Description:
Number of domains: 2
Order of helices and strands: HHHHHHHHHHHHHHHHHH
Number of helices: 18
Shape: globular
Structural class: mainly alpha
Largest sheet: none
CATH class of the largest domain: Mainly Alpha
Helix content: over 70%
CATH architecture of the largest domain: Up-down Bundle
CATH topology of the largest domain: Growth Hormone, Chain: A
Distance between the termini: 10 Å
Amino acid sequence: MNPMNPVDTRPALANTSLESAGALPLAGLLALTAASAIATANESVPAGLLPQLAEGFGVTEAWAGQLVTACALGSGLAAIPLSAALRSWPRRRVLMLVLAGFFVCNAITAVSTSFALTLIARLTVGLATGLAWSLLATYARRMVTPEQQGRALAIAMMGIPFALSLGVPLSAFLGPRVGWRIIFASMAAASVVLMAWSRRTLPEFSGQNDRQALQLRRTLRIPGVRPVLFVLMMWILPHYILFTYIAPFLASRVPGVRLDTILLLFGVASLIGIGVVGVLVDRWLRALVLIGIGTFAAVALMFGLCGSSAVAISFGVTAWGFCFGGQPTLLQTALADAAGDSADVAQAMLVTVFNLSYAGSGALGGVLLATVGIDVIPWVTFGMLLLGLAVAWGAKTHGFVARHQRLKP
Length: 409
């Protein structure tokens, strides 16, 4: 297999084939979209329900916040070892296991009266979520021809901005009205429905030979893998530092601006961004990565220089959301292109790097906030993004390459 043309040539199981170049398998891809939406909701919905969760379990909001931490921790810990343990399983069977985990853990959360049991359930759903993230990207790419892989991945990953921009605010709105247990019960029910939908619409692909070792070091040595993972870290760290502490930043710079309006701008722009990237990624991946991270760097610079202007903040947040919406598609496509037949291992690494960066962003942002103050955060994020942009620019031969190099025979 040519590592720059990473179509998986391993045979699918019975009655499956790649779609023709003229049509995308939308029913199956939308099932993957729903899976990525539920996976995102597993990680993020509890954050919008902290007051209700704290009251329901009789704990502080700080303790309730550990339900979010447990899921993120499980996701980061699970990706590589679970992907290794299940790499020989047929891919749809692994997805069924993931969705069953979503159902059981969310159902337990919906009925549990024990905070300890609920914490274990959130850790376990994090394990399933980490396995989902290492599976979905390669599954979508295997369903289509090389020329359609970017669009297929964009559709599958559209569940991320959809859940963040619509699902999380909706759950925060409904939490005080219908109760947080109903929301988790709804997520459990959605997982059951999605199991039936996926069983009907998704092809079954074979796993890897179980005698083949999971070669982490070999995968890291593949040209292009390390630059993509580094750029991921330098994109995710500043994103979540700024996103996590956007409320105190706005309060210090433009006290009159409404946080919900700013977050709505970000969410809508993210949805538009992933749509645009889905159309262009197969032809313009390198340019889109450079434009995306460069624009985000410009936004951070503008926040540092003009952070007291409501107009500048609104414009910057919109541009930031637009760039971030397509980020998962761009980096997962670049990584799969670089890794070739080691794409499953590389995607598991991506999940681990993402979650460690996510966790590190909260800690680093908190230290900055407590020591030097909120005003330094745009400048720290600007510096990280410049470093990521420099690495992406230099990875023109392997990692972030032009279309004629990616799709050459």
